[in-house]
Design goal:
The chain has 404 residues and is of the alpha/beta class. It has helices at residues 2-12, 99-109, 142-164, 181-192, 208-214, 219-227, 232-238, 244-248, 269-278, 298-313; strands at 41-45, 49-57, 69-77, 84-90, 114-118, 169-179, 198-202, 255-261, 283-287, 329-336, 342-353, 360-367, 370-380, 383-389, 394-403. The longest helix is centred in the middle third of the chain and has 23 residues, at 142-164.
């Protein structure tokens, strides 16, 4: 009874965003109202592309003035002789700059594809004073999550309206690419807007309730939800209107690329697998690392994303590589036995993992007591038991670790 009442109250307060929405949250599956766009402003020019900037008013108005203005960064290849295909880029949660998106834009324009970078709500210039970028983007109130995710999707769809207002872009060849949080938003936009023909999802997933209930990135919000009486099941009901799986099944055309990390604790691999299952014959690339380990393969991954769009827009087959090297880095806390038993913390590099169920692994750790080798057997989430060896001793130990 209490759970049902709580869900009813959440529905009644959908009009309240975490920063105080001043209007009722619209349906996420309805397009934003049409507006006129101002002309863009040239910012810089390189040998391969020209960068422009533009702002427009968000499709949702909140009490945070900065959040109501949506900035776009537009990159046009200099060698364009007519309308060019274009990719809309969405960044990750907490982005403090757009360096990754700019790097992808450079790879796209070198292939004759334009790029547009959208700043998501409560990030970068859309952040209110006294808050950090992205701090307000994920709330422990379902109504707030619905409002912010809806605003993100409507801003992205209004960006597509902008694309269709410009003769520089080929309106029949539009793609979208997102990373982490940007990937979740991209999945919704891809599912809801048929103007997008191709999409790439990097370190993303679906089943928002499961992500909120298991991700290492939202521990504070999850505990707040529990204190309010939510369970994963009731949260899934509350977030049904913004769940990508609700809409992806209706998508019958288009091509997609999914890049996931097998040991991701931020975006659980099972949720990436659900995204793969919800798409129509996606191209898939798995990294043998965690959510942040992909940074060591960033150049290669951005090249693969750009190649995917370049090939798909040119009607050429794209085949992802079977393997992209990204080191499996591990943060571990060890307790060892023996004559010199001790507690240690270390950063490790995995040397091998068993290929069947990933239960056995060996890692080389740098700790305050010197380098150590660990051969372990996974016994529970994060916990393993195994042998610890150093130049001075060999013993039995227990380690809790997480792959970065």
């Amino acid at each position: 009874m209490a759970g049902s009442l709580r869900l009813l109250l959440a529905c009644l307060f959908l009009s309240c965003s975490m920063a105080g929405s001043t209007q009722t949250t619209p349906r996420i599956d309805e397009p934003p109202s049409a507006i006129s766009f101002s002309d863009w402003k040239q910012e810089s020019r390189t040998e391969t592309s020209t960068e422009y900037s533009l702002t427009f008013h968000s499709a949702m108005t909140t009490s945070v003035p900065q959040n109501n203005i949506v900035p776009l960064r537009i990159f046009i290849p200099n060698n364009a002789s007519g309308p060019v295909p274009v990719v809309l880029e969405l960044h990750y949660l907490g982005a403090r700059d757009l360096n990754v998106e700019r790097a992808l834009a450079g790879r796209l324009t070198s292939r004759g594809v334009a790029a547009i970078i959208l700043t998501l709500p409560y990030h970068l210039s859309r952040t209110p004073p006294g808050k950090s970028s992205g701090e307000l983007a994920i709330s422990s109130e379902p109504a707030d999550l619905i409002a912010t995710m809806t605003q993100s999707v409507l801003d992205a769809r209004r960006s597509l309206d902008f694309i269709l207002s410009r003769p520089e872009f080929d309106h029949s060849r539009i793609g979208i690419s997102g990373t982490s949080l940007g990937s979740i938003v991209s999945a919704l936009v891809y599912a809801l807007d048929p103007r997008i023909v191709d999409a790439s999802f990097v370190l993303g997933g679906v089943d928002l309730a499961h992500i909120m209930w298991t991700s290492s990135r939202v521990v504070v919000q999850r505990e707040a939800l529990r204190k309010q009486g939510y369970t994963e099941s009731s949260l899934r009901t509350a977030l049904a209107s913004i769940e990508p799986k609700t809409y992806l099944g209706k998508r019958t055309s288009g091509s997609s690329l999914v890049i996931g990390a097998r040991y991701d604790t931020v975006m659980p691999p099972s949720d990436t697998e659900q995204l793969i299952a919800a798409l129509k014959e996606p191209k898939v690339l798995w990294l043998e690392t965690g959510h942040y380990g992909g940074i060591f393969a960033q150049r290669k991954l951005l090249t693969e994303v750009a190649t995917f769009f370049g090939n798909e827009f040119a009607s050429k087959p794209y085949i992802p590589p079977k393997y992209v090297f990204a080191p499996t880095l591990r943060l571990g806390f060890l307790a060892s036995t023996g004559p010199s038993s001790a507690f240690d913390v270390g950063i490790g590099l995995d040397l091998f993992r068993s290929h069947s169920n990933h239960e056995f692994f060996g890692t080389f750790l740098v700790t305050p007591r010197g380098p150590q080798a660990y051969l372990g057997y996974q016994i529970d989430k994060g916990f393993s038991i195994g042998a610890i060896g150093s130049a001075r001793r060999i013993g039995i130990g227990i380690m809790w670790s997480t792959v970065l």
